[in-house]
Amino acid sequence: MATPQVQVEEPPGREKIGCRKCGARYHRIDVHIKTAHSMSVDQYHGEYPDASVLSEYAKAALEEKDVESGSRASPGNGEFVFGTARLSVRTAVEDGDEIYIPEHDDGWEPGAQEKEMLEDLALSIEHNGNPLIVGPTGCGKTLLVSQLACAVEQPMRYANLNGEIRSADFLGEKTIDVDPVSGQSTVQWQDGVLPQAMRRGQWLFLDELDSAPPSVMFVLHSVLEPNRRLTLMANEGEVITAHPEFRVVAAANTLGRGDESGLYAGTRILNEAFLDRFDAVIQADYPNEDTEGKILVKRTGIEQDVAMMMVRAGHRIREAAANDEVTCTCSTRRLVAWAHKARLYGDPKRAAAVTIFNKLGRDDRTVVEGIVQRYMGDS
């Protein structure tokens, strides 16, 4: 006996739309037709040219979200819009590259400053540029790039250019492969992260650019040119021309003028010829108090009032660093760690000891402990 269908009345203004293939009703059917019928939106429109994939309620909800976030996606057309920038969603990646597409970070809370940076970043990438993000440690430079890559489903690789990076890791090297059956050995070339990204159309995020050794800087000159070529002298002079989707995004704590704050020992001076290859220099900074408070609550679940006390203490520590009262700072990353430990311990002051105080020298510790006491009180 067939089970009778129950007609559920839809509230006025929230009427769903029906799938032309099976009659199922949703506010958004672009996901439904992909999973239930293995169809793209373009294929669906090919069969049903006048069909919509969004209900009026869903359209209004997306428009409201656009106003809040400053970016929008048009379902089915594979394009994301960030202010004046338009980036296409990557529709096909090399086999195995799915693991390099960053995951969405539910704790990310972009404020007005971050949205402007996101637009600058996307615009540079759209026009085959090389954006350089400069800002203090732990302010969200890497997160900004990874969340943009996530939005457009773009594989992204990381290379930390501190003084310990090996040429073999970055460029590649010849290795000896021994056949387990015959025992014969052959010499093979093994790509480093740069050639891999160029061949496969990945974004390459170069962290701590201002700490890179001169040998790495020299190699990057030709890669940062518009035609994006790399000559592998160690591999018989092979010349690689980059995949059209390949991009370089770099981050640094200083603007290539050396360390002027005393916080970033080991950074190098970058010459003008190298800096000229970056079409956009994006100045990053810590979020404002309101945004940073939301980040702490969202990432750790700590109470709003406690989060704001922590944020104000963090901002005061940064002011002290700017005024040469201390030689340390308090990054957003450090505030998140403090809030997380505070929830675990149930004691913000004890949490501050293991996440902040114990990293400081005696003089800095005295000042910072006083700041935390002033803002946290008896909490």
TrEMBL record:
<keyword id="KW-0547">Nucleotide-binding</keyword>
<dbReference type="Pfam" id="PF07728">
    <property type="entry name" value="AAA_5"/>
</dbReference>
<dbReference type="InterPro" id="IPR027417">
    <property type="entry name" value="P-loop_NTPase"/>
</dbReference>
<dbReference type="InterPro" id="IPR050764">
    <property type="entry name" value="CbbQ/NirQ/NorQ/GpvN"/>
</dbReference>
<comment type="similarity">
    <text>Belongs to the CbbQ/NirQ/NorQ/GpvN family.</text>
</comment>
<keyword id="KW-0067">ATP-binding</keyword>
<dbReference type="InterPro" id="IPR001270">
    <property type="entry name" value="ClpA/B"/>
</dbReference>
<dbReference type="GO" id="GO:0016887">
    <property type="term" value="F:ATP hydrolysis activity"/>
</dbReference>
<feature type="domain" description="AAA+ ATPase">
    <location>
        <begin position="127"/>
        <end position="288"/>
    </location>
</feature>
<protein>
    <recommendedName>
        <fullName>AAA+ ATPase domain-containing protein</fullName>
    </recommendedName>
</protein>
<dbReference type="Pfam" id="PF08406">
    <property type="entry name" value="CbbQ_C"/>
</dbReference>
<dbReference type="InterPro" id="IPR011704">
    <property type="entry name" value="ATPase_dyneun-rel_AAA"/>
</dbReference>
<dbReference type="InterPro" id="IPR003593">
    <property type="entry name" value="AAA+_ATPase"/>
</dbReference>
<dbReference type="InterPro" id="IPR013615">
    <property type="entry name" value="CbbQ_C"/>
</dbReference>
<dbReference type="GO" id="GO:0005524">
    <property type="term" value="F:ATP binding"/>
</dbReference>
